[in-house]
Specification:
There is one protein chain. By secondary structure, the chain is of the alpha/beta class. The protein folds into three domains: 1-77 and 95-128, no CATH class; 78-94 and 129-476, 3-Layer(aba) Sandwich (Rossmann fold), CATH 3.40.50; 497-724 and 769-802, 3-Layer(aba) Sandwich (Rossmann fold). 47% of the residues lie in helices and 15% in strands. The structure holds ligand 26V. The site of ligand 26V has 22 residues, from helix 7. This is Alpha-1,4 glucan phosphorylase. Pfam families: Phosphorylase. Its cofactor is pyridoxal 5'-phosphate.
């Protein structure tokens, strides 16, 4: 489409020839009321809290739009090399409060609502929490977008605007029930619809190889249409886009039947493919959904790569400059089809020779691995790919051939090695190994914590590390202090402002170091204890209101919140709870430390063991919470429908952070960082980022237990037998038997038999005793508040390293070679 902007209009943004309300409370109030009346068409006397929220979000969006548009102008003017972050998941959390804090508008909006007789905090609670992700990987992408904007890095996030996010979890009779998550139902004032930004995405059909380049004649086409979400930097001035694609249902045609005039058949295909942007897949999706998942992945990357090229051609007139201008980052293997997609466009549309296109790809792509678990490593059947993406499969074969003949064979590797590194896995069902393709095409491949990156090189990618040792690197994950302190824990933010002399820590988290001087100061310990207590009261009120369970804020809050998965060992947490329960009943008059065990998390809907674990937690909660003999010494709470917003409520209230995965299985973990940053102590294994947290906070300030990776591997090698541990530990045996024989499920005594008597793949029983001992150390320290709060302060003081700002600086320097927008490049304010 030709650009039709008249010359006179071209400089409006830079000359500020328009009205933008200066954000004082009065103008904010007027702006909110204006939006309510003229944008939403609602009479203020009829407005619901959700209406007020929408109006306020429009008002707040106005105030970041200028930054958003001028950021784009700066990038174009200075031809800023840009990173495009491709991810199937973004767990952004609520946008409204975050944007007010990042733009220093919280006070003005609070006052404006006060004048309207409303309360900002209540209004903010109306916002739906877009759950466009499963867990850690999606939330990491969101923390990274916040840091990218705040560090002024030219960056665009690309994802899918799933109509229904992750399901809504309800707990009925202890069981997880999945309900649709209607996050878009109340409108989404935060996103700009971009109906003109649309790209066709094709599927199926045939490949005519009688020409060069071969001609792909697709059978179906669907349009990807963009929605842009503003990602505001902390401190204003810069705002980057998160571009989310929807499938435009009206545009899909079965081309063949449409051409034959068969309107109804073409509509049928449309209905079927409507689902492309409908749901987010849980991470262990069944075979039924696999084809749709593959389509979603291609839909994301095809639209994004086309958009990236279009953006490049706005700045440069040649495709050949693409590698200087563009870095594309692959968040796990999910967007790896971007590689053959870019190859296809370069070869088929721009007529580049294969070698030249391939050299460009290797400069452009980089890839992060987020898991070593074999079941999460994506492989697509060659047959399915041949059906759906014949040209891409053809290109993958060529890449594989080029790799084997030009890279592997010349180095003298044998056939067995070649079989192992081939992108195509031979066997009954030939499969495309997406992680292999990612490694072969990328100039850098990173793991997400030191131990994980080391294991990645020594196990999963060992053969590739022999071929290209310089390709592999580590970038330890981080979390944004804006979301995880300023938004989630404002009282802690005030505490830090006070003792660190201002809010500089928010963009330079190493300033927390200065707390180290203060950790022995009793007044400061008390002040922090009060901050923690207030957060515990807030959580206790929520649990009372939503679940009708009374908990005591003076008890130790012991928290495990994350996806429910066997390797994360929620069921080992349960073993400890039951063991403690038994001990209390055996010795009721001992001086027990009261504890509240808080758990939350979703189980993938097809993952039975995880769902059983949720049910077990709820059965035990019901049983123990109603046993008068334990009084208030143990309470167990499973909070339904875990989300970013719930994490913001729970994490500040935690005393103890449970990070108890089997060593070698958790790539990094990021909630471990959020907890420690909020002054919780960690009980954890030597796994993921726990190892680096230990190094930063010191062994006296963390409870480390359990087998090391080496010990775990030795146990596996020697044929791990859970009964070696159960039979040698009578207290453990008692716990296992109680659960397995129905002590907590009297209506169905065998309900948990299988859960307890399986092969214990993640060695809960091997680590049980060491875990229980570590828990005793926790009680002991908690009894000495001075020591406990000192340790909590030491944890906070040494968490600077775990800011996602540091992670992003590492990526920019080591992987993307990207420079932020400089002070000089920023527009001068009028
Ligand atoms: C796999 C699949 C397979 C196909 C269906 C959809 C799907 C979705 C997710 C996954 C794998 C998830 C990998 C993941 O979430 N890894 C987590 O990444 C965090 C950020 O790096 C890290 O802190 C966690 O330790 C790691 O489990």
């Amino acid at each position: 489409m030709a650009k039709t902007t008249p010359t006179a209009a071209k400089n409006l943004l830079t000359t500020y020839d328009y009205i933008n309300p200066k954000p004082d409370a009065e103008l904010v109030r007027k702006s909110i009321v204006y939006k309510l009346i003229f944008i939403l068409g609602i009479d203020p006397k009829d407005a619901t809290p959700a209406d007020w929220l929408n109006a306020a979000m429009f008002a707040a969006r106005d105030l970041s739009t200028e930054n958003f548009l001028s950021t784009r102008q700066i990038h174009e003017k200075f031809k800023k090399r840009t990173v495009y972050y491709l991810s199937m998941e973004f767990l952004m959390g609520r946008a409204f409060t975050n944007s007010l804090i990042n733009q220093d508008l919280y006070g003005a909006f609070e006052q404006a609502f006060k004048e309207l007789g409303l309360n900002l905090a209540d209004i903010s609670e109306q916002e739906a929490d877009p759950a466009l992700g499963n867990g850690g990987l999606g939330r990491l992408a969101a923390c990274f977008l916040d840091s990218l904007a705040t560090l002024r890095v030219p960056a665009v996030g690309y994802g899918i605007r799933y109509q229904y996010g992750m399901f809504k979890q309800e707990i009925v009779d202890g069981k997880q029930i999945e309900k649709p998550d209607l996050w878009l139902d109340n409108g989404m004032a935060w996103q700009f619809a971009r109906p003109a930004k649309r790209f066709p995405v094709s599927f199926g059909g045939t490949l005519d190889t009688s020409h060069y380049p071969p001609r792909w004649k697709p059978a179906e086409q669907i349009n990807a249409v963009a929605y842009d979400e503003i990602v505001p930097a902390f401190g204003g001035q810069i705002a980057n886009p998160l571009r989310l694609w929807t499938a435009h249902t009206g545009d899909l045609f079965n081309l063949a039947s449409f051409n034959e005039g068969d309107y109804f058949s073409s509509m049928e295909a449309q209905m079927k493919n409507e689902t492309i942007a409908n749901v987010l897949y849980p991470n262990d999706a069944t075979a039924v959904g696999r084809e749709l998942r593959l389509k979603q992945e291609y839909f994301l990357v095809s639209a994004s790569v086309q958009d990236i090229i279009a953006r490049h051609l706005c700045r440069y007139d040649s495709i050949h400059t693409l590698p200087e201008d563009v870095a594309i980052h692959l968040n796990d293997t999910h967007p790896v089809l971007a590689i053959p997609e870019l190859m296809r466009i370069l070869i088929d549309d721009y007529y580049l020779p294969f070698d030249q296109a391939w050299a460009m790809c290797q400069k452009i792509f980089s890839y992060t691995n987020h898991t070593l678990m074999s079941e999460a490593l994506e492989k697509w059947s060659v047959d399915m790919m041949a059906q759906l993406l014949p040209r891409h499969l053809d290109i993958i074969y060529k890449i594989n051939h080029h790799f084997i003949e030009n890279v592997v064979r010349p180095q003298g590797y044998d056939d067995d090695f070649i079989r192992r590194v081939s992108i195509i896995e031979e066997g009954e069902q030939r499969q495309v190994r997406m992680a292999w393709l990612a490694v072969i095409a990328s100039h850098k491949v990173n793991g997400v914590a030191k131990i994980h990156s080391d294991l990645m090189v020594s196990s999963l990618f060992a053969d590739f590390a022999a071929l290209f040792p310089e390709r592999f690197t580590n970038v330890t994950n981080g979390v944004t202090p804006r979301r995880w302190i300023a938004v989630a824990n404002p009282k802690l933010a005030r505490f830090l402002d006070k003792h660190l002399g201002g809010s500089g820590w928010l963009t330079d988290l190493n300033q927390l170091n200065q707390l180290n001087k203060l950790v022995d100061n009793k007044d400061i310990q008390n002040e922090f204890a009060n901050v923690k207590h207030a957060a515990k009261v807030r959580l206790a009120e929520y649990i009372q209101r939503e679940m009708n369970i009374t908990i005591n804020p003076n008890a130790l809050f012991d928290v495990q919140i994350k996806r429910i998965h066997a390797y994360k060992r929620q069921s080992m947490n349960v073993l400890h709870i039951v063991h403690r329960y038994n001990q209390i009943l055996n010795n009721p008059n001992a001086d027990w430390q009261p504890r509240v065990f808080i758990l939350a998390g979703k189980a993938a809907s097809s993952y039975n063991e995880a769902k059983q674990t949720i049910r077990l937690i709820n059965d035990i909660a019901y049983f123990i919470n109603h046993d008068e003999r334990v009084r208030d010494l143990i309470k167990v709470v499973f909070i339904p429908n875990y989300s970013v917003s719930l994490a913001e409520l729970i994490i500040p209230a935690a005393d103890l952070s449970e990070q108890i995965s089997l060593a070698g299985k958790e790539a990094s973990g990021t909630s471990n960082m959020k907890f420690a940053l909020n002054g919780a102590l960690t009980i954890g294994t030597l796994d993921g980022a726990n190892v680096e947290i230990l190094q930063h906070v010191g062994a006296e300030n963390i409870f480390i237990f359990g087998n090391t990776v080496e010990q775990v591997q030795t146990l596996y090698r020697n044929g791990y037998n859970p009964y070696d541990f159960i039979d040698n530990d009578p207290e453990l045996a008692q716990v296992v038997n109680q659960i397995a024989q129905g002590a907590f499920s009297p209506d169905e005594p065998h309900r948990y038999h299988k859960l307890m008597h399986n092969r214990d793949e993640f060695q809960r029983y091997a680590d049980f005793r060491s875990y229980v001992n570590a828990q005793a150390q926790v009680d002991k320290l908690y009894r000495q508040p001075e020591k406990w709060y000192r340790a909590a302060l030491v944890n906070m003081a040494n968490m600077g390293y775990f800011s996602s700002d540091r992670s992003i600086e590492d990526y920019c320097r080591e992987i993307w070679r990207i420079e932020p927008v400089s002070e000089q490049e920023l527009p001068r304010l009028a």
